[in-house]
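How a chain folds remains the central question behind the approach discussed here. This step matters because it turns folding into a mapping between discrete strings. The sequence in question and its structure tokens are set out directly beneath this paragraph.
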Amino acid sequence: MRLSTQNIHMSKTCDTIMTQFVLQQDMNLAENKPDIASICMKKAQVEIEEIHTFTDVVQIRGQLEYSILYETEEDGLRLDTINAQIPFEETISMRGITSADSVKVMEQLEDFSSSIINTRKLSMQAVILLNLAKEELYTVSLPISIEGETECS
């Protein structure tokens, strides 16, 4: 009788760290956009573009993409939109990490606000939360079948 096994490759989370940071940016309207009277709606999302690991450090690059619907001061067409991005680069200390390690990053937009500075300028603020998890691969050998003769008494 012989026990047949198969190797299964899995990953496990070893170390986790959470960090929070604030993005702030003032933005001037493009020349072809009408003046702002009031902000009607806004939405934003965080996009992670690159993750690099070094000794005890993780470097993350991404951007905050946002859209703003606003009421104009012009007659006729009373609504217009702004679509833009704010790039960011964060360097996070993570003890025990090496350049060969794999890190999973989960991003969350905690808060996004925009305010009117004047009819041609907006101020954007965002609070972004990043959860980093170091992942390690490991192999488990599991039985899948029994081959040969079996005797039962």
